[in-house]
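Predicting holo structure, nickel (II) ion bound.
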Amino acid sequence: MNDALEDFRNTIEAAAERLLQISEEQSRIPKAVGKWSAKEIIGHLIDSASNNHQRFVRAQFSDELIFPGYPQEDWISVQQYNEESWPLLVQLWKTFNLHLLHVMSCVPEQALKKLRAKHNLHQIAWVTVDEGEAVTLEYFMRDYIRHLKHHLKQVFENNPQAT
Ligand code: NI
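Done. Tokens:
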């Protein structure tokens, strides 16, 4: 897991700097009609961080990995991320993820590697796992980081001026 955590820290630090090169005005423009703006994508990642924070802590008091999902479009529209300040969103995203990195680094090896037969990663994971296949918390945490990287890539593809 240590390799993933080091890479996660580098990703957070580098992306936060790049994100701040996107202007307030640019950050609210979606790439196309019906697509998310940079503010909405980072907002979605904040929703992911806040939901997964709960999951990563609760998983350590349980043998299962069964958690509620969050309807992403509804969460974005209710919170009106486009109306919030861009530097504030970037700061929140960065700080929340640095905390999650810390939380991940505190999980005992036994809890990370324990096979969990009961889970709903066929519903809530980014790269889903069949219901009948046992999973680990480590897999779920790595999946969180993969999902985050996927959306960062999206933001930077839409905003090539941020280097
Ligand atoms: Ni997503």
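Residues 2-158 form a domain with the Four Helix Bundle (Hemerythrin (Met), subunit A) fold (CATH 1.20.120.450).
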